[in-house]
Amino acid sequence: MATCGVSAVWDDKRVLYMKGAPEVLLAASDRIWDADGVHALTAERRAAFVKAFWEEQDKGHRTLGFAVTDRPPEAGADIALGGLVFLGFAGIADPVRPDAPDAVKACRKAGIAVKIVTGDTIATASEIGRQIGLEVDGAKTMDGKGFEALTPEQTLETVKDLRIIARARPNDKMKLVKALQKLGNVVAVTGDGTNVAPAGHHADVGIAMGRTGTAVAREAADIILLDDAFPSIVCAVLWGRSLYLNIQRFLVFQMTVNLSAASIAVIG
Asked: Whole-prediction pTM value?
């Protein structure tokens, strides 16, 4: 969802405060509220805000816009974006954990393809991908609208090299999971939000965050990370593969010994 709002009463008038993607709210605004009051939003001010959006997003910051309208919809009606008063935006830094790049490198070395599916912009997602070591320049990056427009055949071909889906919605995550499974991949989905629950439930392995994850995400998951750390997934894969390999070796050893003993007994 691009925006959400909360209704309130101010100066005997019902107003609707909204937050969401700053470029969406800015496009739907015709006025701006600054320290000097409410003014018309000129083309120069719009261009300055758009430039500021890109500067923050290029740093890997998440941007969140704010607006207000004194023409809220009736209860139960859809919000029609238009005629908003733009209040500004905030750039939120969500730094990458120091151990995340090594964990991603270990995954790729183990043959695990890591993909980012996020609601952030392409600029923000690409910067985060660069910081954690994904080959953004050599891999495919696209937004949710472009991914949704792909045909089933195009989707199967695209997901092979796709690394980042920006401005994604829950349906995009489900579509990605189904396409990867159709190609014969074992898919694991991890996240902390409610919108990741359908994809996590449909995936072969759903992984939820134990600390910051929502209750819906935890209920739909098969594994819950108590420390919310991506390297814990790498450790789980390592121990799982080691256990599987040890079981294989044990079965081969037992079958070899038993068959040899049985053959000697029959010959004797």
From this structure: 0.72
